[in-house]
Amino acid sequence: MVDLTFLTTPKIVCKSGGLTSELGQLAKSLLGDNLTDDAASMNGNLPMALLVTDPGIVQFGYAKQACASLELAGFQVTVFDGVQADPPYEVVRQAAKIGKESDATVVIGLGGGSSMDTAKIVALAIHSTQSLDDMVGNEQATGTRLPLIAIPTTAGTGSEMTFVSVLTGDKGDKKAIYSSKLLPDIALLDAALTLGMPRHVTAAPPAVPRKTPYLMPSQSKV
């Protein structure tokens, strides 16, 4: 029998309308004592949340809802809405640069698989000295990841529950980064976000490599 370790997101919150009612408090819970009510009331000393999403999510008004929830909980918010399908390295670099310059303390990925894949890498890359190519492969990523929440707007990709991000390299080739560091701290599943999506978008299966190791040998040396 092969020994396996099942890796997935440790906290899953399922609540319709949770984007507005839960997100801010969930983000606040990840910072612990670093975000007190007194600190939240002092203008200019608010912690920064980086919201990683795409133009469509902004257009639908979901990004605005997320920002309102975060601000109510005592955050400033920086929005990066430049995510593209099969995220190119350059998009990830841009988002990480914005997160670093804004001194982000928590990262939220809101959207489909590409937004969440981008957010997962960005949360790690903000304070990492590694190149993206050096992260490619199985458990090659190093460094400390920022607190991370993933919020899917479709039901098909499952990126909010996995430790893989699929990107597009500088030469146009697909790159997969597998690391337990990429598992979000919290997955917020808000069914209301899927109501306006076409059926085929909501139910689309994940476009990830067939051998994605959701179940990993305990002593894998891949």
Notes on the protein architecture:
It is a single chain. A hairpin with a 5-residue loop joins β8 and β9. The protein is of the alpha/beta class and 222 residues long. The longest helix is centred in the middle third of the chain and has 13 residues. The C terminus is likely disordered. The chain is built from 9 helices and 11 strands. The strands form 3 sheets. Strands 2-10-7-5-3-4 form a 6-stranded parallel beta sheet, with helices on both faces. A 3-stranded mixed beta sheet has the order 6-9-8. Strands 1-11 form a two-stranded antiparallel ribbon.
Q: Helical proportion?
A: 25-40%
Q: Into which percentage range does the β-strand content fall?
A: 15-25%
Total helices: the number is 9
Euclidean distance between termini CA atoms: 19 Å
Sketch the major β-sheet: 6 strands, parallel
Q: What is the residue-averaged pLDDT? A: 87
Query: Could you give the order of strands across the largest sheet?
Result: 2-10-7-5-3-4
Short descriptors:
single chain; 222 residues; alpha/beta
